[in-house]
Amino acid sequence: MVHIVGAGPGDPELLTIRGHKLLSEADVVIYAGSLVNEDILKFCKAEAEIYNSAQMMLEEIMHVIILAERAGKSTVRLQTGDPSIYGAIQEQMDAMTARGIEFDVTPGVSSFLAAAAALKQEYTLPGITQTVIITRRGGRTPVPDTESLKKLAQHQTTMCIFLSISLIDDIKRELMSAGFKSSTPIAVVYKASWPGEEKVIRGRLDNIVQLVKEAKIDRTALIIIGHCLDPRKEPLPQSNLYSPKFGHMFRQARF
Ligand code: SAH
C-alpha cells in the first residue's frame, strides 16, 4: 500500500496526526527533498528506507514503489504542503492506477495557508473579496493563455502566486498592466512556518522588487497580493456569520 502524504509547509508540527502515523509506520519513504523539511524525517522508523525524489525520475520513483509493493512493504510518498497543489502527483497516481497499485492520499497544510498565518491575514474579507486565486507565472512550465496573470488579476481577488519569486519583476509589470496601482500592498513570505527561517516582506507594487532583492529571496516563497492587504482606516463591514441580524442552521437571528 502506498500513502501519499502532505508534509505541510515546513514546521514539523504542522504535519497532520494521520500523516505522522503513516510516516512512523512506513517501511519506505520517498520525500520531495527540494522542499520538504528534513526534520520531518525524524518521525520515520530507524530502519525505514529513505529516498530523496529530487534526484529521481518518474520511472525511478515507480521502480522503488513497485519493489516495495512486491515485498509487501508500506510506502509513504511525502510531498510538500498539500499534494494537490503543484505536487506533480497526478502522473504518479495515474502510474499506480495503471499498475493496479493501491494508494490513498492524506492532505497537508499548504504553504499558502501558512503564509496567511505568518501575515495574520484573512484572504476572504467581507465587502472586499470572497475569492482566492492560486496560480503561478508561466516559466519552464507554461500556463494556459486564458490564465495569464494579467487576465486573472482583472478580478482583483486575493492572489497567491506560487513558484514565481525569481520572476518578481515580470509579475509586478503584469499586475500593474492589469490595473493594480503602484501603491497596492503586496507581501512575500519566504519559508512560511519553517522554525527560525521564515521571512515576511511587506511592500507595495512599486518597491517590492527591490525589497525582495535586498532580502536575497529567490526561492521557496509565495507572493500574496490583493485588497485584503490594504491598510484600513474604517472597520470592516461585519461578517454575516457572527451578526445578530443573520440566522443560520446553528443560531437564530436576534432582530
Ligand atoms: N504543494 C506545495 C507547493 C509545491 S510548489 C504546497 O501546497 O505548498 C513549490 C512552491 O510552493 C515554492 O516555489 C513556493 O512558491 C511555495 N512554497 C512551498 N513551501 C513554502 C513555504 N514554506 N513558504 C513559502 N512558499 C512555499
Order of adjacent strands in the largest pleated sheet: 3-2-4-1-5
Distance between the termini: 55 Å
- CATH top-level class of the largest domain: Alpha Beta
Low-confidence stretches: none
Give the fraction of residues assigned to helices: 10-25%
Largest sheet: 5 strands, parallel
CATH fold call of the largest domain: Methyltransferase, Cobalt-precorrin-4 Transmethylase, Domain 2
CATH architecture of the largest domain: 2-Layer Sandwich
Structural summary, described in words:
With 255 residues, this protein is of the alpha/beta class. The chain has two domains: 2-106, 3-Layer(aba) Sandwich (Cobalt-precorrin-4 Transmethylase, domain 1); 111-229, Methyltransferase, Cobalt-precorrin-4 Transmethylase, Domain 2. It is built from seven helices and ten strands. The protein has helices spanning 17-25, 58-70, 90-98, 111-119, 149-153, 168-177, 208-214, and strands at 2-6, 28-31, 49-52, 75-79, 103-106, 132-136, 158-162, 185-190, 199-204, 221-225. A five-stranded parallel β-sheet has the order 3-2-4-1-5, with helices on both faces. It has a five-stranded mixed β-sheet with strand order 6-7-10-8-9, with helices on both faces. β8 (185-190) and β9 form a beta hairpin. The longest helix has 13 residues, at 58-70. The termini are far apart. Bound molecules: S-adenosyl-L-homocysteine.
